[in-house]
Amino acid sequence: MSRTPRPLRIALIAMLFASLTSPAHADHDDSSFDPDNRNQAVKGYSLTVKGQGAMEWGKQQLERSVITTSWGGGDLEVHDYKTTGVTWAAQTRCKDWNALWTSCDVFTIQFNTAQYHSDREWLTMGCHEFGHTADLGHRKASNDTDNNSCMRSTTAAHYKFDTHDLNAIKAGT
Q1: What is the pLDDT of residues 127-156, one digit of tens each?
Q2: Residue 127 contacts residue 140 (beta carbons within 8 Å)
Q3: Can you tell me the distance from the alpha carbon of 3 to that of 42, in angstroms, rounded to the nearest whole number?
Q4: What is the pTM of this model?
Q5: Which of 45, 57, 121, 165 lies at a C-alpha separation of 20 to 30 Å from 110?
Q6: Nearest to 62 by CA among 78, 41, 46, 45
Q7: What is the distance between the alpha carbons of residues 110 and 128, in angstroms, rounded to a whole number?
Q8: What is the pLDDT of residues 70-104, one digit of tens each?
Q9: What is the separation, in whole angstroms, between the first and last Cα of the chain?
Q10: Greatest mean pLDDT range, 22-26, 54-58, 146-150
């Protein structure tokens, strides 16, 4: 009886495991936030004028991708909060995971009104946080060399998704 050498067995197991996992995502995939589908309903709660503008801009940026949005809620809940003693300008969290904990059914986006932001920074925050709901992670200078993505971790970032972001959304959702 012949036995398969151990290095070959390990290689075969690795190939089998790789074939069972999902396709590779773009290099700024946010592995913790996968939307449950490509149709996302958006609703704002107690938003300031600037928060409303950021929400509308973020929704518009998602519409440039393969994700379709609508008004009415159920998928993306957007809030303004005055949160002092923190350094974040906005954040995205999963409020309701699906039954298998593999994707997010309801996201909560929070804009921090305790910090001053210019109109352009509000647009950047809207694009950035809505990008997280589309499975985008942060970009760095090494993979955003022309600094034209809202997914940089700074309010000085660009205020739109770039082609790389749009391709990553398509690959990851």
Answers
A1: 999 999 999 998 887 777 778 899 988 767
A2: no
A3: 58
A4: 0.79
A5: 165
A6: 41
A7: 12
A8: 999 889 999 999 989 998 899 999 999 987 778 88
A9: 47
A10: 54-58
Please provide the DSSP assignment of 103-167 as one string: SEEEEEEEEETTS---HHHHHHHHHHHHHHHTTB--B-GGG-TT---TTBSSTTS-SS--HHHHH
Amino acid letter, 1: M
Whole-angstrom distance, CA of residue 170 vs CA of residue 140 = 20
100, two tokens: 């298998």
Please state, in angstroms and as integers, the Cα–Cα distance from residue 20 to each residue in 15, 36, 57, following that order: 9, 20, 37
* Dist. CA 136–CA 162, nearest whole Å: 12
Structure tokens at 167: 């391709």
d(CA 32, CA 10): 28
**pLDDT at position 62, please?**
96
